[in-house]
Amino acid sequence: MAESVPVRCPSCRREHSYTPNTYPCACGSPLTPRILRGGSPVRVEHHTWEDTWVTVRCDACGRRSQWPRPELGCPCGLLLRLPVAPLTSASPAVPGSPAEPPRQPAPTSAVPRPAFRPVTIRTGRDAVNAAAKYLRWLGFRDVLACDDRPGTGVDLRGTGVVAQVDPTTRPSALREVECLWLNGLNASAVGVFFSLAGYAHDARTRADELLVPLFVMDLTGTPQPVNDSADDLIRMGA
Known about the structure:
The protein is of the alpha+beta class. It has 5 helices and 15 strands. This is Restriction endonuclease type IV Mrr domain-containing protein.
């Protein structure tokens, strides 16, 4: 199991315990990015392809491959990129490409469900598909992408749920959270928000007031809760 490391948010100074994801090397051995202890996390303002992948070396076979760089969503709304220890081995690089990560452990839940299998995100459509898969994993039925997204701002609809997925490189704004909440109210459904770049502070505060579950997703396609409403949704399911 990967070792947890302490991470302090440079904005709100809240300290988190972060455990990096473990991936399967082509040789079959587990492979985990090493978080640089004492390094300063960097606030993610814009996602670029080069910045979101990191080269990791397998201790078993020496193979080097690229995997999503470790990121952490702080409840204050910031998305933090964590520093990774530099490679020290002179082993020759073996070309690698991003691959679908292994089965992730399910969070503690009052509702029994299998472990969630994420979908690697490379495009905005991948982000929507990953969110849809996660909502189905939570127990929502008939979750489908919306054809009327430009007019409503809703990306996904299902029985008892509407969802918005923000794949942009800026924190999701207050107005987007409020619009999602209104869509949920009109549909008598829970509104769930997924963002790749976190949330503006006022958006995070308003979501807490409206009880809108907020999630951040990294490029492995694994949503992480950032407020109590999201924690409750994971625990209780649909």
